[in-house]
Amino acid sequence: MKLSAFHIAKPERRGAATLLFVALSLCVAVGVWVGTYRYFTAQELQRAEARMSLYHSTVLSEVERFEHLTQVLAVDPFVISGLQGDGLATLNARLAVFASAAGLDAIYLMEPDGLTIAASNVEDAGGFVGQSYAFRPYFQTALNGETGTFYGIGATTGLPGYFIADPVRNDAGEVIGVVALKLSLAPFEQAWRDAGEQVFLTDRHDVVLLASDPMWRYRALDPLSQDERSRIETARQFPGQALEALNWSADEDARWAEINGSWRLHVVSAGLPHSWRLHYLRRNDSAVLRAWLATGAFLAISGLGLFLAQFQRSQRLGQALKRSEEEEAQLRRANAALAQEIEERRRAEQRLEETRGELERASRLAALGQLSASVTHELGQPIAAMRNQLAAHEIKHSSGKLTQTIGGLVDRMEGITRQLKFFARPRVEPFEDIDLRDCVDAALELMVPSLDALKVAVVHDKPGHPIIVRGARLRLEQVLINILRNAVDAMEEAETPTLLVSYGVGDGKVWVEVSDTGSGLGEATLAELREPFVTTRASGQGMGLGLAISSGIMDDHGGKLEARNRQGNPGAVFRMVLAERTIKEVAAQ
């Protein structure tokens, strides 16, 4: 009887231990979910802050880019003569050229009573000439001798814009008029929508000026007071807009916000002119999903542990029962399942390692994007100021050798910042069906001076039939120019520099190969060379961005860039691979 009681109680204790293990596992799983959710949410906030930093820099750069233009125009002899009643037709044409070149909505000149006497849009149906803007705050500020700025809906065109104005003075220093410009900030909204972002810009009254969602525009985050509404109506800032409150609320630390019934991570950027604030909203679905995946992985591991424990118990029981054939068959199946589980786990670890490498690269590129945005912003305003000062000097004096030299240096500085801007902001260009041969011809034509300088022999094995791909022509030409320039630079010491350009088609892919007789890649790999600021050139001969930019362009086109050393001969071979567009596909589209 004692032996029977022992055998009955022992399974009960094992069952209780199993239940305790399951209960503990569930409690720990709850803790894992909470901890990983907080961790991944913090990561999402970091990404949101990085995107906010980029958008903040681009908005600030665009607003400050034209601050000096009205100051330059205020001392333009044509503008001063126009206020004296001379040469208004010439001044209209001159202002139209300036507005078109700068990408501005309008540049216009007003008399002290606010009447517009000259404008770049004089030929348009909604031209400003003959209109009075004396009621605008920017005009009143400029008339008092200071730079005036203002954002609002145009009284004449009905289109919103950012206005900058400066006083025009005579030789005695008296204010005799006001010159102003209007800049549209609407492209920011389109860029935010194209990027799939939720972003909006508010003024000091918390009224939404720009938004990725048009329904948010001209709505207030909080109900406006009567005094605020009176000031807005006096300046005619938002004529015809009800300025209703947005369906919006934010928590105390402003890290979360609810808009139209949906909660989002919320990041706010201050430090913009006129007490503007930029708001960035980000979904947190990714953090929730990854928290569930981490919790599921923990439960899977716990289940595996429980399974292994049960399996070991089954083994011991099988040994006690002399390993019957049925138990041996079950054991073989369990071993097979375990082997499959181990193999799947090994593949999962391999994928995790690959993903970790991609995340590290994405993190480096994100850091480079932030650095690029900061550098281009910090250099953009001084370069623009230098450009404006050169323009003012050329207006007052004739162009000399010094101004041409400084102008060339400014062009070189702008070229460097343009390379950095590739990482600082997204580029949206339409794709089209293009003949890859035309891109190669255009790139070779641009490289003619460099090829002639080194007396490079070019062998262009050009096929007689079109090679159609889908992409952005200028960006593909940029890749080819970067490859050709690298090849030419590598052949500076070559005795017989030769460049071979060939094509290939197969397996739904097309490619262009550029082969040179230069120094080759050495021990470097393409993965190393495509990292930003990695270069094989001597110091001062390149920034190491060419292949990084080219690889990014190829990724955007669904293609890839390959590189290798020539076999048996000095030199390197670069291959640009893209998806082929057949004649049937082009015709069907």
Description:
This protein has 589 residues and is α+β, with helices and mostly antiparallel strands. The longest helix has 72 residues, at 325-396. It has a six-stranded antiparallel β-sheet with strand order 7-6-11-10-9-8. Helix content is 52%, strand content 18%. It is built from 16 helices and 18 strands. Residues 1-9 and 538-544 have low confidence and may be disordered.
In whole angstroms, the N-to-C terminal distance is: 87 Å
- Spatial order of the strands forming the largest sheet: 7-6-11-10-9-8
How many helical elements? 16
> Average pLDDT value?
82
Strand content: 15-25%
Core attributes:
589 residues; alpha+beta; six-stranded antiparallel β-sheet; 18 strands; disordered N terminus
Helix/strand layout:
Blueprint: H1 2-64, H2 69-74, H3 77-83, H4 88-102, E1 106-110, E2 116-119, H5 137-143, E3 148-153, E4 160-169, E5 175-183, H6 186-194, E6 198-202, E7 208-211, H7 226-234, E8 248-250, E9 256-259, E10 262-269, E11 277-282, H8 285-320, H9 325-396, H10 401-424, E12 432-435, H11 436-446, H12 448-454, E13 457-460, E14 468-471, H13 473-490, E15 498-506, E16 509-516, H14 526-529, H15 546-556, E17 560-565, E18 572-579, H16 583-588
Parallel strand pairs: 13-15
Antiparallel strand pairs: 1-2, 1-5, 3-4, 4-5, 6-7, 6-11, 8-9, 9-10, 10-11, 12-14, 15-16, 16-18, 17-18
